[in-house]
Amino acid sequence: MHLYDFIVSYDISDTKRLVKIAKLMEKCAIRIQKSVFLLKASNEELSNLVANITEIINENSDDVRIYKVNIQKSLHLAMATDLQ
Q1: Are 36 and 8 in contact (CB under 8 A)?
Q2: CA dist 7 to 38, 59, 70, 82, 84, Å?
Q3: Half-sphere exposure of 80 toward its Cβ, with a 13 Å CA cutoff?
Q4: CB 10 within 8 A of CB 65
Q5: Is the four-CA dihedral 8, 22, 41, 33 of positive or negative sign?
Q6: pTM of the entire structure?
Q7: What are the φ/ψ torsions at residue 48 (nearest 5 degrees)?
Q8: Cβ distance 52 to 27 under 8 Å?
Q9: pLDDT (tens digit, 0 to 9) for every residue of the chain, 84 residues total?
Q10: b/e for 1-24, b at 16 or more Cβ within 10 A?
């Protein structure tokens, strides 16, 4: 099983749906910003995640975007550190 890197970002208009999406993403990905996550997943895992997201969101008012990225070829200008 080959794993790929994805950036998942979302803009959810309803607080209840927003919390559900955030909790779902926190289970499988690393939070980069408030509504941006880094996900490492196989194509099958990504398909399952998309199906779960689709069940939660309102396609007319919410926006979820998933971008496949190559972390090794990405440009990192700085890295934040959690000091807690």
Answers
A1: yes
A2: 5, 19, 10, 20, 25
A3: 5
A4: yes
A5: positive
A6: 0.84
A7: -65, -40
A8: no
A9: 899 999 999 999 999 999 999 999 999 999 999 999 999 999 999 999 999 999 999 999 999 999 999 877 776 666 665 544
A10: eeeeebbbbbebeeeebbebbbeb
